[in-house]
Amino acid sequence: MEFLDFEFIKSIIAIIGIDLVLGGDNAIVIALASRNLPLSQRNKAIIWGTGLAICIRILLTAVALYLLQIPFLQFVGGLLLVYIAIHLLTDDGDDPDIKGSDNLLSAIKTIVFADVVMGFDNVIALAGASGGNIILVIIGLIISVPIIIWGSKIILFTMEKFPVLVYIGASILAYTASEMILGEERLQPIFEQFSILHYILPIVMILFVIITGYNVDQRKIKTVK
């Protein structure tokens, strides 16, 4: 049977490994996006957000080769991820005009949007490991979903105990954004000519996100006072 075929099983294991290794950032996004929700809504945001994100990722994997042909896709995705990192860092959830249901929907949209933006490397890796077999991708993702969900819950619990971890989480997203930009194929001549950018850009991205987020938070505090 195909499901007992060694190559089939090996491909599934490879896909699960890829999804878990590259899924750490996604777990951080899920934790950041849902940290301000009431306890009764967090599980809904995590489950719905992750479920929709996985469905979209399956579709993206199916068209991965076409995605590679889109000019500056990774560059734009990296810039979008910087925006997401700052937004998650400065979203204190204290706006009295936003109701709980809107917060839940907003958290789900953020999780899905961030997963799509961050999922390019994941999608390309999965497409390669699956050999173009979408069934393999679906099985691998379904198996790894519970681990990603529980990972996000652990991160969320830790962030509540140690709020400074929110900045660390945002820094990881900023680093991921820099890696996406550095991975843009059409910009490789520039990065090869100025190889120091491989070291400077991640640092600049992280500092930009942290400083911007901190300043926005300070302005909010002064406004409240």
Give the termini distance in whole angstroms: 68 Å
Task: Decide which structural class fits the backbone.
Answer: mainly alpha
The description of the largest β-sheet is: none
> How many domain regions?
1
Describe the structure concisely for a colleague.
By secondary structure, the protein is mainly α. The chain contains eleven helices and no strands. The longest helix is centred in the middle third of the chain and has 28 residues.
Keywords, please?
mainly alpha; 11 helices; 82% helix
How is this fold's topology laid out?
Blueprint: H1 6-22, H2 24-34, H3 39-62, H4 64-67, H5 73-90, H6 100-118, H7 120-130, H8 134-161, H9 165-182, H10 188-193, H11 197-224
Helix pairs in contact: 1-7, 1-8, 2-6, 2-8, 2-9, 3-6, 3-7, 3-8, 5-6, 5-9, 5-11, 9-11
Keywords: Membrane, Transmembrane, Transmembrane helix
Protein name: TerC family protein
Organism: Salinibacillus aidingensis
Provide an overview of this structure:
The chain has eleven helices and no strands. It has 225 residues and is an all-alpha fold. The protein has one domain.
